[in-house]
Design brief:
Layout lengths: L1 E3 L2 E3 L1 H25 L4 E4 L5 E3 H41 L4 H42 L8 H8 L7 H13 L1 H9 L7 H27 L1
Antiparallel strand pairs: 1-2, 3-4
C-alpha cells in the first residue's frame, strides 16, 4: 500500500488485475484461433485438441469392446445352459424330487442373473451406438453410409427421414415373411436383445417345468 500525493494506491491489486486481464486475453485469442478449424472438436485440461477422427476412433473402439463383451457373456451363458440341461436330464430319474425342484430353481435363477447382466451390457452398447451416431452426423457422411443412424431409426430410437422411411418400406415389400417374423419378436424387430431374451425365457420355462414335474409327478 503506497500513498501518491493524497491518493492511496494498492499496487498488488493493480498487478493482479493486470495479470487476470492478460490471462483472459490469451484465452480469447486461443478460442478465436481454434474456432475456425472444424476438425478441432474439444480439448482436455492440458489444452490438447481432440480431432473428429480421434473421437470417431474412440467411439468405435468403445463400441467394439462392449459388443464383444456382450457376445462373450452370452457364449458363456449358452455353455452353462447346455451343461445345466444335460445334468438335469441325467439326474431326473436318479435324484429325489426335491433335488429336481432345486435344479429347476437354479435354472430360473441363472436365467434371471444373465438377463440382468445382458440388460446392463445392452445399455452400455446403446450409449456407444449413440456416440457413433453423433460422429456420423458431425462427419456429414452420406445417408447410406450412416449405418448406426439407420439401424437406430429402424429400431424406433431415432428421428425419421423420408429416404430412410422409403428404404424401410422397400425392405418390407421384398422380405414380407422375414418382416412379419421380425415384428412378432418385439417392438425393435429382429435384434440380439430379442434373441437373447428368447433364450432366457426358454430356460426359465425349463426351470418351471422341472419344478412342476418334481412336485406333481415325482413327489
Amino acid at each position: 500500500m503506497r500513498y501518491v500525493g493524497k491518493a492511496m494506491v494498492n499496487l498488488p491489486a493493480i498487478i493482479d488485475s493486470k495479470r487476470n486481464c492478460v490471462v483472459t486475453i490469451e484465452l480469447q485469442e486461443r478460442v478465436m484461433s481454434t474456432s475456425g478449424n472444424s476438425t478441432l472438436m474439444g480439448s482436455d485440461a492440458g489444452g490438447a485438441q481432440v480431432t473428429l477422427e480421434e473421437q470417431g476412433k474412440y467411439a468405435l473402439e468403445h463400441f467394439k469392446y462392449l459388443a464383444d463383451q456382450r457376445m462373450k457373456t452370452f457364449n458363456y451363458y449358452a455353455i452353462l445352459v447346455a451343461a445345466a440341461i444335460t445334468g438335469s436330464v441325467a439326474a431326473y430319474d436318479k435324484c429325489p424330487w426335491y433335488m429336481i425342484a432345486a435344479l429347476g430353481v437354479i435354472h430360473c435363477a441363472m436365467a434371471y442373473i444373465f438377463l440382468m447382466i445382458d440388460i446392463r451390457n445392452c445399455l452400455l452398447v446403446f450409449n456407444a451406438r449413440r456416440a457413433l451416431r453423433s460422429f456420423e452426423e458431425r462427419a456429414q457422411l452420406p445417408e447410406p453410409m450412416r449405418v448406426i443412424t439407420n439401424d437406430l431409426w429402424r429400431q424406433g430410437h431415432d428421428a425419421v427421414s423420408a429416404a430412410r422411411e422409403e428404404a424401410d418400406r422397400d425392405w418390407a415389400r421384398r422380405y414380407k415373411f422375414r418382416n412379419l417374423i421380425c415384428r412378432c419378436m418385439g417392438r425393435d424387430g429382429a435384434t440380439y436383445t430379442a434373441a437373447f431374451n428368447l433364450g432366457f425365457f426358454a430356460q426359465t420355462s425349463c426351470g418351471l417345468l422341472l419344478i412342476a414335474a418334481a412336485v406333481f409327478l415325482k413327489r
